[in-house]
Amino acid sequence: MFEAILTVCLMGAEPVCRDRLVPGYAAASEAGCRAALAETPPDLAGLAEGVDASGPVCRAAGEALEVAEVAPGVFAHLGRVAEPDAANRGDVSNLGFIIGGAGVAVIDTGSAPWMGEALWRAIRARTDLPVTHVILTHMHPDHVFGAGVLMERGARVWGHAGLVRALADRQANYLESLRALVGEAEFVGVQVPGVTDPVAERAEIDLGGRVLDLRAWPVAHTGNDLTVLDRESGTLFSGDLVFDRHTPALDGSLRGWRAVLEEMQAMAVARVIPGHGGPSLEWPRGAHPLARYLKVLERDTRAAIDEGARLSEAVETVAQSEAGAWQLFDAYNPRNATVAYTELEWE
Predict the structure, then answer these.
(1) Residues in contact with 172: Cβ distance below 8 Å, sequence separation at least 6, in sequence order
(2) Average pLDDT along the chain
(3) Which contiguous run of DSSP H or E holds residue 174?
(4) Which terminus, N or C, of the chain has the lesser number of Cβ atoms within 10 Å?
(5) Using N-to-C axis directions, what is the helix angle for 254-265 and 288-306, rounded to 10°?
(6) pLDDT of 49 higher than 70
(7) Helices (H), 183-320
């Protein structure tokens, strides 16, 4: 297979460039790709300010994300349980897509444009149906910055009603951090997703005989968590409301998260695709480690507050009994203890 590629560069004293997929021109031969470009040239007017481009040209198809079919028509990509860096290129969260009778819905798009492009190729290898919907489960950068290629092809973007403001407040810091960790070239021409369809409580998406239930939750992991339930297979994409192996990351409310997780555990679903780990968990058993961790985090934080421990002291002791059960514990548990202490000390 061949596809159209555009080389985009951030212009400066030393230009920083990357090759960017131009979707919709894949063909079995290079000649077929060129013919498609000649017949319908791509609109390049949407390039970010300060970004220059050359091409497009036709090349052999690039990498596709590895995905597993966890249920008929439901696919999940397992991100690494790691911090984003140049070696993993930011591939540190789970993504997925669901194929209906008339279109495809993508759930989360990864840290960087290349991930959305690689996900596009994985979808095209399995169906020619259009990608009609992109669903973002929350604001964190490892879930949102690959959306550009999918938006370019006309996908509507769904998210919690609070996502737009939360992402707007943080996107500059998120991108600055990712550029430092992963490399500036991976983010040339990155597009920050705009939510076309905000969900305040619940919504439905019909993919053509296949209905998805979207639910916006109260403040928990973050203030803008959204889940996606495929009715047909009973598969729930939880976003980061569920972690597996990866130490949970608290960026909302500890008490809220515990309450939401308890309600989720009562849901009659066949399997859960967590935001990290898995990629497919039996339910509700798959929630037990997270529920235990959050319980210990609250118990130990309350004990530290009752004993008069300062925040700087509490972060050294809270939830240390959980250290052996999770990866990246030293990176995330002190942050969780800080958020929990700040929340609970003012009760």
Answers:
(1) none
(2) 95
(3) helix 163-182
(4) C
(5) 150
(6) no
(7) 254-265, 288-306, 311-317
